[in-house]
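Entry for the shared binder. Reason: the reviewer on the internal report wants the predicted structure included alongside the sequence.
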Amino acid sequence: MLTIRSSIFLFFLVLLLDVFGVVEALPQNRGRKGKGKNNAAARTPQQQAARIPQGVSQATDGSTILDMTARVNGVDLRFKISGPAAQFTTDSGVTGATQQAGAAGAMGLNVLLHGDGGQSFFDFPNQAVQGNLMGVVVLAPSEQLLWGQRTGGPSGLTRDDGAADAQAVNDLVQKVLPQVMAFNASNVFFTGVSGGSLMLSGFFVPAHMANFAGTGVMLMCGALPPQVDAVNAAAFAGNTKIHFQSTQQELASLQQSIPAAIQGYEQLAAGAGLAAAQINALQTVDNTPNGGHCAFDEQGFVSGIQLISDNFANIMQGGNGAVQGVNAQTVLTGVVGNENLQFGRGQ
């Protein structure tokens, strides 16, 4: 069995061999460079990721991580799922598994979608069980590891395949994961990072959140207003928590799209009959950290995402929203009256 230490060693070994630089900032509209005699440089990020072994390893809290791939709606979706070994199904192949496929469990899930380039898939910042939620992270089914953009290069805020990817994530959670892990299907939360947040807010939440109503969505360093029609908005707009977490030095394009997303979701809630106080209890926003894109700890991209991930329960599951390392009494500021965020100089 792979340990978490050996998995990390293998990961960084592949990075060095392949010159694999995954940068999870919102991409600019430019093509790939460096394709020449070096075959490693010619591989797509998807091909490079495929060279990193799948299998079983250990999470930071001692839980078991299963890294595998499933065919969903005609595409291969690689994912990691983490939790106590006994909660895996016997069909999963995990040592110590006790559950039958499709069995309900007492614990829920926190499903994370990484940003452009895939960094958070490999880091798996939500791997530890927190707030009775087991961790899941899904790899985008695209050449460049972009959510909502299966072919071609980076395209900024444009996500032509957002609807298809949203459907695939919905079907993965509802149809595939129950064959692998026993969990409470009424307690499934979602987390987005950068490009993953664009996909969640722009496509997944309006189209599919009625299937997971009453839980919540954390949108880190990115958001779009709904890009598709909301399906049964009345079922989720009045009972589902949405938190928008950003920074002062956010990317210039996101300084425009995040406020637009806040307004879009506030309007959905108002349309469901919620008063301002009720909306503020469900929809919250913060951009106080004086850091760059996703640097919520004002130090770095990876460490910033880990900080917010480690405080998921305190932000999303009834806590007071105080995050040590973020210079704010609480990150849970209601969106009503705070739609037009004030940013600093954009990256």
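Summary line for the report: The radius of gyration is 19 Å.
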